[in-house]
Amino acid sequence: MTTVWLKIFLGRMGKYIIDFIYSYYYFIIPPVFAYGVFMAISSYNLKRIEKKVNLEILNQAKNIIKEAPDINYTDLVDRVEIPWENIIKAHSFFPYISQESDLWVSRTNILNVRDIIMHNDRKIKLVLERNGIYNFREKSVIHKNLYTEYLHRITRKR
Description:
This protein is an all-alpha fold. The protein has one domain. The protein is about 70% helix and about 5% strand. The protein contains 6 helices and 2 strands, in the order αααββααα. The chain has helices at about 1-65, 75-80, 85-90, 110-115, 125-130, 145-155; strands at about 95, 105. A hairpin with an 8-residue loop joins strand 1 (about 95) and strand 2. It is flat. It starts with a helix and ends with a helix.
């Protein structure tokens, strides 16, 4: 009965693939498991570096704002200097990094780390806003709870 279902849903080729996996799964599972562990360690390595970069941006921005409280966002970004080499040396424990959704890894060097972490031009602003620093000349946006907003829209409450 199972072979009939396999032929119907997967076709003849799908049945052969399932039979191959069933026959040789002792040889297939260890490399897949090793690949998964390798990718998890690489992703964790990038997260550690990114966490330290965010902390460095936040600390430098707080110090700069203390010195010049009337500073605007562009001047603040120009004054933030991230010591990439020191952060990578201190917080990288594995020679590779990968993003969570990537299928492969990159070497841990300054160019790759900077490209992956600072891929968004607004990265510094996002880090500062998440940590409660809004005193730029731009008007700060009040974050709304989208779920209650939608619920109020449905029930017509304000």
